Amino acid sequence: MTIAFFDTKPYDREFFSHAPGYADFEWHFHEFRLSSTTVNAAAGAQAVCVFVNDRVDAACIAQLAELGIKVIALRCAGFNNVDLAAAKQHGLLVVRVPAYSPHAVAEHTVALLMTLNRKLHRAYNRVREQNFSLAGLVGFDLHGKTVGIIGTGKIGRITAQIFRGFGCEVIAYDPFPQAEWAASHSVHYRTLEELLTQSDVVSLHLPLSPTTKHLLNEQTISQMKPGAYLINTSRGKLVETDAVIAALKSGHLGGVALDVYEEEEGIFFEDHSGEVLRDDRLALLLTFPNVLITSHQAFLTQEALSEITRVTLDSLVRWRDGLEAVDERKLP
Question: Does residue 211 sit in the same domain as residue 117?
């Protein structure tokens, strides 16, 4: 089987090309993203493997079908960048990795908050310059604070449990509550408004959909507790960037930590250190001392990359051998 990989980085190539037991697979790795203008690079393959910023829209899918592509394999959980209706129309199977390492994302969420709150990034830079002053590095105890978890899927639940370990009161919002889990971990469900008004820290853990886009906007952010911290390690478009900037300027938000950004496509995952950053909103966010941004790296652990590789290749083998892919991997 020949697979065309798009938007690949060194770690993708390392984990997939060295996966044991796939000697009959032919790997075609491309660093550029898949779109209707690059789709011809998939010629000769039976499947394409894509990531979060590949643009697999209707035009691209039609061209993939013409090239004889049978499978679109997402090496990620999110699938909002794929036109599922077009894939179904052209008879293309779409599979994903619904859960690679929820611990990786949950742990990164807590790491972001701890770094921002205790100013570890600023302290690290100071000490390297032999500046051992503690002025301006005051944080707060997490113990006893109220943390609001929006979305209690696998990642949200693990994040909540970590915060419970810190001695935090954890409240949650989800249209589909996990009552038994919540009871066993002393987590209490609230309405969205109640969660926003009561939480010292709000952490987002839900997929992007038409109903969740800009869930945190000018109105909902205004409901948050003054001085609260906002953490987003899910999808950038869950948060309206302009509203966040306004709340930071007014002092309503105490701090913001992001591993995702509303307009990250074309910016994240690439080295732009020798260029002028053309995104004015992102450039402005980077100037705030109470903002911490990482470039969509929450998933980046050895365990997660190994699981992404295993599940993706297993789905492709199942298709090749005429077996049904595991239900939760198959879309729509």
Answer: yes
- What is the C-alpha separation between 122 and 136, in angstroms, rounded? 9
- The total of structural domains in the chain comes to 2
Domain coverage including residue 68: 2-100+301-331
Asked if 235 is an active-site residue, the reply is: yes
279 and 153 in a single domain? The answer is yes
Cβ neighbours, 10 Å, residue 274? 5
User: Same domain, yes or no, for 135 and 36?
Assistant: no
- The pTM (predicted TM-score) of the whole model is 0.90
74 and 210 fall within a common domain: no
Each of the 332 residues of the chain gets a pLDDT tens digit; together they read 999 999 999 999 999 999 998 988 999 999 999 999 999 999 999 999 999 889 999 999 999 999 999 999 999 988 889 999 999 999 999 999 988 889 999 999 999 999 999 999 999 999 999 999 999 999 999 999 999 999 999 999 999 999 999 999 999 999 999 999 999 999 999 999 999 999 999 999 998 999 999 999 999 999 999 999 999 999 999 999 999 999 999 999 999 999 999 999 889 999 999 999 999 999 999 999 999 999 999 999 999 999 999 999 999 999 988 876 555 566 66
Q: Which string of b and e fits 103-128 if b means at least 16 CB within 10 Å?
A: bbbbbbbbbbbebbbebeeebeebee
Clarify whether residues 8 and 64 are in a common domain: yes
Catalytic option among 240, 262, 264, 307: 264
Catalytic member of 55, 157, 235, 329: 235
